[in-house]
């Protein structure tokens, strides 16, 4: 089984992806962890590294090629990243998008990063704009197009114990033999 969990910063994707991977005994691979590690190794904050990636497109391409290769060659994996659903594409059994209103996400980020809410909001908005531009330029991906996902969930609508149960129920009830909705992701340039 190959699952993907995607969403913007502060949406709960990492928390929910870790729980889902544990529940189904899947290897958990986080693109965000890899990206933050690369940023730290080069002495940048994630926001600074995002902005640098606008100038050095190979930063994104190296990370994305790794995630795409994993999706194409391995089973029993849960990929979590902003582009996981796009990169896994036809290889994914199920692709989930998690989101929440920006104010909620900014509060979550402020709590976990010990920032003020206005600071977290400004940083998050800047980061999202940077990423959206890069994804469009590099791969023709419109990150706001949710049509490739099998389920999109506003995590602010339910408590933190409910969303993992919703995702778990979807995976448990998924039957590949009955799946008439699996479609390839088209119009993307996988030019790494």
TrEMBL record:
One of its GO terms (molecular function) is ATP binding. It holds the Pfam family Cytidylate_kin2. It catalyses: CMP + ATP = CDP + ADP; dCMP + ATP = dCDP + ADP. InterPro entries: Cyt_kin_arch, Cytidylate_kinase_dom, P-loop_NTPase. The keyword Cytoplasm applies. The keyword Transferase applies. Its main location: cytoplasm. It is an enzyme of class 2 (transferase). One of its GO terms (cellular component) is cytoplasm. HAMAP family: Cytidyl_kinase_type2 (MF_00239). NCBIfam families: cyt_kin_arch. This is Cytidylate kinase. It comes from Halolamina salina. The gene is cmk.
